[in-house]
Write a structure and sequence with these properties.
Number of helices: 4
Low-confidence stretches: none
Largest sheet: 4 strands, parallel
Distance between the termini: 19 Å
Order of helices and strands: HEHEHEEH
Number of strands: 4
Radius of gyration: 14 Å
Helix content: 25-40%
Structural class: alpha/beta
Shape: globular
Strand content: 15-25%
């Protein structure tokens, strides 16, 4: 992902689904100036709290980071458009089915 983001000549918006503590999204965001917007999506309230602590502890600006508490994409506003989606989803049939339906791909 890092190589893909760094190779882009344009600004990139990124959504990290099932973000956990936010490691993937925050690392990419902090290391790449052309990553201009990050949506970190996580259902677990404990992980959401940890995300906020991680941002503060690492002095990462939250100006262009939005944390969304959602089960996969169920509560993500429909008007959000992104260039890159990553995720560390639990490998259950329900989540896989939802992602296939949303992204119109076969996993």
């Amino acid at each position: 992902l890092n190589r893909l983001v760094k190779s882009s000549k344009n600004s990139i918006s990124h959504m990290d689904i099932c973000a956990g503590q936010g490691s993937i999204g925050f690392s990419l965001f902090n290391e790449n100036k052309n990553l201009t917007k990050l949506f970190s999506v996580e259902i677990n309230p404990t992980q959401v709290i940890q995300m906020r602590k991680t941002l503060k502890k690492n002095k990462i600006s939250t100006k262009n980071i939005q944390i969304i508490r959602s089960d996969a994409l169920n509560s993500v506003p429909k008007n959000i458009k992104v260039d890159l989606v990553s995720g560390n989803t639990p490998h259950t049939q329900i989540v896989i089915h939802d992602l296939e339906k949303i992204f119109k791909v076969r996993i």
